[in-house]
Amino acid sequence: MLSNTAAISPTDIWKLSDPNIKPQVGNQIAAGFYKNFRSNTIETSVEGYYKEMENSLDYKSGATLILKPSY
User: Fold this and answer.
1) Which of 26, 31, 34, 39 has the smallest count of CB within 10 Å of its CB?
2) What is the dihedral of CA 12, 17, 21, 23, to 10 degrees?
3) What letters, b where the CB count within 10 A reaches 16 and e where it falls short, cover 39-65?
4) Mean pLDDT by 10 residues, the chain (71 residues)
5) Burial bucket for residue 4 (CB in 10 Å: 0-12, 13-18, 19+)
6) Cα(21)–Cα(69) distance, rounded to whole angstroms?
7) Whether pTM exceeds 0.70
């Protein structure tokens, strides 16, 4: 999804993968621990995650994404 915030009303464009743009791949792992103390009067929890992204594209800020002629 390409977000265009330069326009008066923000618009999003969905761009599919093609021979020039590889599909994005993401993997995420999450783990957490939850524990109660003092007869359930104190609750504690800790959570962490790791995320890995491949083939992520970023466009230049201020780029015109709408009505751009294709060459």
Assistant:
1) 39
2) 100
3) eeeeeeeeeeeeeeeeeeeeeeeeeee
4) 65 81 92 94 96 84 63 54
5) middle
6) 18
7) no
| Per-position DSSP letters for 14-68, written without gaps between them | ----BTTBPPPEEEEEEEEEEEEETTTTEEEEEEEEEEEEES---PPTT---SSP
Angstrom distance (rounded) from CA 47 to CA 43: 14
Q: What does the block give as tokens for 12?
A: 């999003």
